UniProtKB/TrEMBL annotation:
Record keywords: Amino-acid biosynthesis, Branched-chain amino acid biosynthesis, Leucine biosynthesis, Lyase
Pathway(s) of this molecule: Amino-acid biosynthesis; L-leucine biosynthesis; L-leucine from 3-methyl-2-oxobutanoate: step 2/4
Entry function: Catalyzes the isomerization between 2-isopropylmalate and 3-isopropylmalate, via the formation of 2-isopropylmaleate.
Name recorded for this polypeptide: 3-isopropylmalate dehydratase small subunit
Gene3D superfamilies: Aconitase, domain 4 (3.20.19.10)
Subunit structure: Heterodimer of LeuC and LeuD.
Transmembrane portions of the chain: none
Tagged with keyword rRNA processing: no
GO biological process: L-leucine biosynthetic process
EC number per UniProt: 4.2.1.33
Alphabetical list of Pfam families matching this protein: Aconitase_C
Reaction(s) the record says it catalyses: (2R,3S)-3-isopropylmalate = (2S)-2-isopropylmalate
Length: 193
């Protein structure tokens, strides 16, 4: 995984609450065994009609948000099943940060384990970000070290993150990488030292 320290990107506003993992990545696209290639199916039933044509009224089909790397959404984002494919699809599409007022616990942990920074702000702060992003192209900077979200128009908000998750993201570590930080001690143990 790539480390996330300070990330600046355009915000895509998905002003919907209770977005579940089945909406993020529908079940029929879970046949892949690798983590890549899921981005094309992100929010599939919202992005495309029954014939596979892009729906012009869905936010990801708006060229204004092409290349966006920050997704802002309503409360309880990532609820539903515990499929890890949901953050895989978000990451493969290009999102590095997801901002919401609340997250499902398993989804939150799956994001961290897959290199996506889930940022929980207050409902009022999220609504301010959503409104800005809906009205014009809005770029936001997320500073993980300082745990601050800010833009160039004076918006600034702090967020909390468990220290363990922060360390994982700052260093670009997954669970295996963390284990390998103890490689010397593991080798000593295996050698009976």
């Amino acid at each position: 995984m790539e480390p996330i320290r300070i990330h600046t990107g355009v915000v895509t506003p998905l002003n919907r609450a209770n977005v579940d993992t089945d909406q993020i990545i529908p079940k029929q696209f879970l046949k892949r065994i690798e983590r890549q290639g899921f981005g094309q199916f992100l929010f599939y039933h919202w992005r495309f009609d029954d014939d596979g044509n892009p729906r012009p009224d869905f936010i990801l089909n708006n060229p204004k948000y092409d290349g966006s790397s920050i997704l802002a959404a309503g409360e309880n984002f990532g609820c539903g099943s515990s499929r890890e494919h949901a953050p895989w699809a978000l990451e493969d599409y290009g999102f590095k940060v997801v901002i919401a007022s609340s997250f499902a616990d398993i989804f939150y942990n799956n994001c961290v384990k897959n290199g996506i920074l889930p940022v929980q702000l207050t409902e009022d702060e999220v609504q301010e970000v959503l409104k800005k992003a809906e009205n014009h192209t809005c770029s936001i900077t997320v500073d993980l070290g300082k745990q601050i979200v800010r833009d160039d128009d004076g918006f600034e908000a702090g967020f909390s993150i468990p220290g363990y998750h922060k360390e994982m993201l700052l260093n670009g570590w997954d669970d295996i990488s963390i284990t390998l930080t103890l490689e010397e001690k593991i080798t000593q143990f295996e050698q009976g030292a």
